[in-house]
Structures are given as structure tokens and as C-alpha cells.
Amino acid sequence: MKNLYFVLLLTFISPLFSNSALAQCDDISLENLTNPGPFDVEILTEADGIRNGPNYLEATIYYPTNATPPFASIAIVPGFVSLPTSVEEWGPFYASHGIVTIIIGTNSIFDLPEARANALLDALETIKQENSRVSSPLEGDLNLDQLAVSGWSMGGGGAQRAAVLDNSIAGVVALCPWLPNPQLNHESPVLIFSGEEDTVAPPSQHADLHYNATPNMTDKVLFEIANGDHSVANTPNGGGGSVGRIALSWLKLYLENNDCYCPLLTDNLLVNPPAASKVEQSFECELLGIDSQELAIGFYPNPTRNIVYLEIPKDVHYELISSLGQPLLEGNLTGNNKQIDLSQFPESLYYLQIEGQVIKLIKNN
């Protein structure tokens, strides 16, 4: 259940604490979010035998050739009067990181968002059939519970509508989406990119409304790219590469269910990013390797300028530690008004240790 405040609870690898909880995440870092990724990529088209779906026009599947299956998959559709080439760079990018990607065209370049939603669902049907097509190199290699959708402009609006139409969709990436009067009651985790200077789908009339129309219980992020135009998220290189790094981390987290990518988002990519003019977020990290019997701790606000308030059901001892592992404060938190004052410390990242658990705090001035 979501708290009233954005909660970041995770363990941290440090000489001061046990590193066993996060050993599984040792090979995952910002440096791994490269373009291209580590895997070789090949393509499949209808000439190779893939299905010709009735609700879209032509398709290209990008897939990794030297990664370990089963693979998650994502379907991507372009925007109004646009061809698949407008978003094709996402295909080899995702595939080079182990995510099978199908990029489709539309039956008409004038198709509206609802038609594009149906086109995406039809593309996912093609992915499903590749998993059972005898001559497909992907036969038996796809995880059909890990399917996502994405799109640009009207395609982005269509991607969000696809999640409403099919509640099995595991994730949505909307690229400068265009969709008036959005009806977005779905539970699929959604990442929305918008451009600050977008005159085709102005954020105040589209992306911002989409974020607000998505239920509060749905994990969601809105990332507005500073000075970005309508095509700023058409490639993973948008926003100085931040678009690709965030989108990949989002899909690894929610599509592949890899919790190791959550700290990359919460502690790095979404914290005062230079590429963003605005970031809104409503999601929380899963606890990695935390025993279910450990003490429940709530805290807010985070980031903070001075006071951090803690919700802990009993009196506890705490220790505040710098990002370099230096002890800074320690004491006892007692009674009903538990708080720690960080006003004397500079803007930075801090670690709060309470009964073997570690909370990551961000101090902003």
C-alpha cells in the first residue's frame, strides 16, 4: 500500500552494513545503461514469417541474439502522420538490453489514439504467436506475462489507452503523448515523457493531465525534458541520454520485475536531473532482502531541507552517516514526535541506520 509520502526504503552496500541483501545487484549500475547495450541484435519482418496483424501495417521485431531467455517484450507505435522510422531507434536499444521490441506502422497515418491502442494490442498478439511459431528464432523464448506498450504523440496516448483495454499489460512508456480528455483508469506502471517546449502536445494540455488522470494507486512518473520539443523522446538519446536510461530502468523494474533498478531511479536518475524541467513521481522501491519481521519505518519529507519526521511504532536508537561512511549524529528517537534535524548539514545524500535497517535520505537546500 502506498504511504501518503514518497517512501524510499532500501538497504545499502557499505562496510558498515551487511552487503548480502544487495549482492544480486552488484552488476547493475548507471554505467550499464548504455546505448547500445551488451547484446547483439537481429531483426524479423513479415518476409521472415512473422504475423501480419489486421490492426496495424507492417512490423519489425528486434531481438537479442546472445542474451539468455526468457525475454520480456514491448510494442511501439508512432504518432499522427508518422512512420515507424520516427521511433525506430528504440528497437535496437531495447533489444540490445535483452527486451524484444516490435515496432509497427498504422493502417492509416491518420489513425487516432484509440486505433493506435488496438494496433499495439494486435502487435502483442504477434509477439505471442512468435513464441509458438516453429520456425521463429524466438520460439519458446518469450515470457508472455512480461508485455509492455509504448508510443509517440498519438501513439503515446494510444499506449495509455491500451493499458486500459488490457489490464495484463505490465508497463507503459508514453513519449510526448497526445490524448485529450484522458480516461486512464488502469494499474499498469506508466512512465510519461514530455517536452517543456512542445507546441504539438503541450504538457499542460496532455502529459500533465495524463499523469493526474492515472489513478494514485498506479505507479507513475512524469519526466518533463527541459527545452524539449515534441520529438525529444523519439530516441533513447533524448535529454542527453536520460530518456533512454530512465525508460530502460523503468522497464527492467516493472516489466522484468528486477528491483535492482529501482535505486537507479530513486537515488540517481530522478533526483534533480539536469535534463528535466519538472519531475513528478508516485512509486516506491521494494525492499531488497529485508526480512518481513523487520521494523516498519515511515519517513517524510524526502528530499528535505531540514527536518525529517519518522513514523516508528516504538522508541529506537539511530545513527546518521554521511555518503562517505562517516558517522555524523546518533541518539534516541522516543515518543510520538520522532524527528531528526538535518539543517546543519550540507546538501547531500545521507544514510540513517535504525535497528539494522538503512534509510537513504536526501538533503536539499
Automatic annotation (TrEMBL):
InterPro entries per the UniProt record, alphabetical: AB_hydrolase_fold, FrsA_esterase, PET_hydrolase/cutinase-like, Secre_tail
All residue ranges annotated as the Secretion system C-terminal sorting domain in the record: 300-358
Cleavable signal peptide: 1-23
Keyword terms, alphabetized: Hydrolase, Signal
Keyword Hydrolase attached: yes
Coiled coil: none
Matches recorded under Gene3D superfamilies: alpha/beta hydrolase
GO MF assignments: carboxylic ester hydrolase activity
Domain PET hydrolase/cutinase-like: 37-267
PANTHER family listed in its UniProt record: DIENELACTONE HYDROLASE DOMAIN-CONTAINING PROTEIN-RELATED, POLYKETIDE TRANSFERASE AF380
NCBIfam families (UniProt xref): Por_Secre_tail
Protein name: Secreted hydrolase, alpha/beta family protein
